[in-house]
Amino acid sequence: MAAVLARAPPRPARGAAKGTSVELEQGMLDELLLVCTFVGTRKVNDDESDVESFVRGEDCVAWLQDLQRALRRDDGDARAVRTTVGAWDVLRSKLLPLAEQSGNDLVATRTLCKIFVLLTMPLSEKCHQALAARPDPVKDKMRNGEALKKRQLLREAAERQARQLIEARMAFAERPKVLRGLLRMFEGARKPRERRSSNDDADVELALTLLRNLVAPLPHTSDRNERDAGSSLDALVKALSDELVLDTVADLCSASSKRENRHWGLVLVEVLAPLLAQHKPADIAQTEVLSQKKSERASTRKDVDDRLERALLSRDEAAVEKDLQKRKALDDASKRPVGGGALSRARDREKAARTLAFASRHHRFGTCLRVTPAGSEDSKLVAGTRALLSRETVKGDGDLTLHSKTAAQRRRPVFVAPHKVGAVRKAGRRKKRDEEEDDEPHRDELSDDDHDEDWGQGRQQDEVLRVTTVTRRGVAADDAREAVSTLVLRLARHGAGRLLDRVKHELRTDSAAVQKRDAHYFFCLAEWLLAWRRERAAVLSRRLSRAAREGSSSEDFSESVFFPRSLLKLVDVFTVKSCLDDLSRAKDRKQRLEVERSASLYREILRALEALQHGDRDSRKDRSRLAKKEVPPDETCSAVASGMLDKVFFAPEAADPLPTLLRDWKGGQHTKRYACDLVEILHATTKIMDSHKHGNSQEYLRKILKPVQTLDIYGALLEAFSSNAPAINHFVYAFLRRGAQCPFEGMTD
Q: In DSSP terms, which residues pair with 369 in a beta bridge?
């Protein structure tokens, strides 16, 4: 097993010793061609048309072992052997069909799995650096031509490897029987410790390593590759869910607390962290509610069909007509895509561009015009004179309607104080709230695509694993989200807590099995789970609010539903201290991407501690209303959160990192997402200061305002006010409002 996963090959292949050449010698090519030929062949008809059958070659396992040795001798950066095998399409045409036939041959399955691991290994660090490098004319003049040629060759090799990894993922998604045969590698995990051999442990770790390679995030080389990578991941996740591979992974997480399974914890984190990080937490949280609505709609449709059948038998025409209308409404609702679909969204945008968004008391002149057609009492507000002079269409009835989208975009938006937005929206929905559904997808503070905009130098973002903020779309995206949602719900019940305990023990004791990126995967998994908890709590709060208005509900809305107890492992002393230490270490080493990643985790930890301390205040009001009595927050959770907040903010050696992070901000070097994280951290911190008995929000605000970088961040966000998410604009407005109410007398530089 150690030989398979070795990162340093014992002997480089001929023609790839220097790490830059992607062409093999003729002798090496002949050997590869011989090996790939005698592995097996497709069975063809007389008319040379392929059929779905594969004939194994004689001594097939021996030839597979030769191929495995050739791949192990390949160079770790250029990977000329793997590129050649990928160009010949050996994986799709021979290896995967052979794996389908070798389901009962454990030796062949094990050898094929080792070859799959070698073919799907992620790109090396030098390849990532070559893809991230940007042309620098000044430095390129100082380099010789040979160095520039090597860098260009390595970059081209990295692009080919990235494309082949996408094709390999697609090939596995198209062969679900291969994934079903992968379950045989997990049979050793079901054996008790006294009956388990070393080969059983090696098989489980080998299968987990293959899953890690298949779900690993791929570097961004082109828009086409990025789309294909997303669609291939969705298809692969759906296939893994259909073949019960994800359920097996969840069972391994639950069993990771046992002594005989402790060495699988780090590998499981390497599988789960990239898989979850490539799905937006808000989308996964919303999928659970949408699945419930689909099941409820299906049961309602069944009841309607039963009533319709009884009405037809009794010849009650009124009941038949009523049930037919209700069934038609249910069919229309089921055919309507979630979110309205692309055509509906385009229509809504065009309608919003053509419709006047606001009106004022100066509606008869200036930028607004009230038009009353001749012979009619109905009037209509349209764009004013300045907009009409640009482009307009005059209809026959005298109605002037603006048809210029650019003119509508030039209109200045009306500013509504963020703390009043909720009241305005509630007043507008008051008449329709009884019949309308409140389960629309939740838009969080990172739902805007502009939040991934890079305000600094252009650079590759693949160096540090980050949680995505982009909604995945595609043919299999909905099925993949449903599969991930089912997996996360199973983990939230019990598996996540046991897995996190095992991983934290390995990191705390500095185990020999810990590698460089294990802490990064742990931080990414912790951030994703906490973000998913927060988004799911927001979705459940809307359902709880509707149930409270109706006065009854059969669902469970207890405190443990809003904050699963297994996720309490993510706000303990070790996790908080590790996050703060990583922030300090990355800041000292000037590793900006790691600073941004740890800042996102710190933001989610603060949000989780705030929810624990007050018992999710938004949902607690509705729970009290539904239970018809005051529901206090959980005393144990509140005490744990208060104790942790005391250590962070109010201890003699407080570890609050926000002042240092704000002081180290430099324009042009950080992303907009990082600026939004800092703004939210400051907003959450001031709220904690307001509610704590030892806190003083005004004194803390005066401390934060001493470095001028604080105002630079808010100034940059104010410039992008129109493109920010609503939550970010609320945080900016709340800061300005607090600043206006804070006395600044006596402040010194």
A: 382
pTM: 0.76
Cα torsion at 113, 116, 117, 118 (round to 10°)? 130
| β-pair partners for 341 | none
- Number of C-beta neighbours around residue 352 at 10 A: 10
Q: Could you tell me which of 599, 602, 655, 610 has the C-alpha nearest to residue 637? A: 610
Tell the burial category of 5 from Cβ atoms under 10 Å away from its Cβ (0-12, 13-18, 19+). Answer: middle
Q: What is the four-CA torsion angle of 76, 78, 84, 85, rounded to 10 degrees?
A: 30
Helix locations, 491-517, DSSP H: 496-508
The residue written with tokens 């597979």 in the block is: 64
Widest pairwise Cα distance in the chain: 95
How far is residue 12's CA from residue 80's CA, in Å, rounded to a whole number?
10
Distance CA 604, CA 610 (A): 10
Find the length of the chain: 749
Q: Give residue 169's Cα distance to chain centre.
A: 19
Helix (H) or strand (E) holding 304: helix 281-314
Tell me the per-residue pLDDT of 418-458, one tens digit each, with 9 for 90 and over.
Answer: 445 555 555 555 544 444 444 444 344 443 444 444 444 43
Q: What gap in Å lies between CA 211 and CA 201, rounded to an integer?
A: 16
Structural contact between residues 255 and 268, judged by C-beta atoms closer than 8 angstroms = no
Task: State residue 119's pLDDT score.
Answer: 92
Please, which residues bridge with residue 270 across strands? Answer: none
Handedness of CA 12, 17, 22, 23 (dihedral sign): negative
pLDDT tens digits for 343-400? Answer: 555 655 555 554 433 333 333 333 444 555 555 555 554 443 333 333 333 333 333 3
Rounded to an integer, what distance in angstroms lies between the CA atom of residue 40 and that of residue 197? Answer: 32
